[in-house]
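User: Design a sequence. Structure:
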């Protein structure tokens, strides 16, 4: 006699998967590695775009964030693909100092890289430091939130992969229209959108206050662009 179908409870199955992940895997460490690799991809993308002539920070930084997000989704896919065999076996179980450039004066006077003969330069530098710190702090908080909630996110993605593959047999009440990518974008897309917006605003302000700067580092040091490496004209200088 065949077993009668069981009713599927998504939240309960996600909770079961989460307990299993925390028991036999390292979900937060896994997510930390993925977030770290994602950040590295973003920095590399920004550097390559700068070398290609995209000097406008308010354009380059959001684009780099978008590329990094694509890499993040790819890393999630790799993790899910690598864990498919394990997840199938578990179904139905009851387990649980940058050097500053110097500026020469007309009569041999030499000033610091921060001194441009304008009393407002220190104020601009301080303001840039503040917005840069705020941007970094916000990005760090959002990254930490992804790492802390990794067990729940990864467990939900595993359930979606199992549902899409028809791996839950003899159960009722299943919505098979969902997919892991939709869940991942719904849970993490807004985080990367916020990061992209913050970087765009930060880059735009930095480039407005220090025309010619093509990175936050150049803006913080009030460094002119080196000859022979000029990218796009400052889009906010008008």
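Assistant: Done.
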């Amino acid at each position: 006699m065949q077993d009668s179908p069981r009713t599927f409870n998504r939240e309960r199955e996600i909770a079961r998967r989460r307990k299993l992940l925390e028991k036999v895997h390292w979900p937060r460490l896994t997510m930390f590695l993925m977030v770290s690799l994602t950040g590295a991809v973003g920095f590399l993308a920004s550097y390559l775009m700068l070398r290609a002539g995209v000097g406008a920070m308010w354009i380059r930084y959001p684009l780099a964030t978008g590329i990094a997000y694509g890499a993040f989704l790819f890393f999630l896919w790799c993790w899910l693909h690598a864990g498919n065999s394990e997840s199938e076996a578990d179904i139905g179980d009851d387990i649980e100092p940058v050097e500053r450039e110097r500026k020469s004066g007309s009569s041999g006077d030499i000033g610091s890289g921060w001194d441009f003969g304008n009393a407002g330069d220190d104020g601009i530098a301080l303001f840039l430091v503040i917005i840069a710190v705020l941007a970094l702090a916000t990005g760090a908080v959002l990254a930490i939130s992804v790492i802390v909630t990794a067990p729940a996110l990864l467990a939900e993605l595993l359930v979606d992969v199992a549902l899409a593959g028809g791996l839950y047999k003899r159960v009722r009440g299943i919505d098979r229209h969902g997919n892991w990518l939709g869940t991942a974008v719904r849970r993490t897309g807004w985080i990367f959108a916020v990061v992209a917006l913050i970087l765009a605003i930060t880059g735009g302000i930095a480039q407005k206050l220090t025309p010619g700067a093509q990175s936050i580092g150049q803006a913080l040091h009030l460094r002119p662009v080196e000859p022979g490496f000029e990218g796009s004209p400052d889009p906010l200088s008008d």
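The radius of gyration is 25 Å. The chain has one domain: 10-94+119-220.
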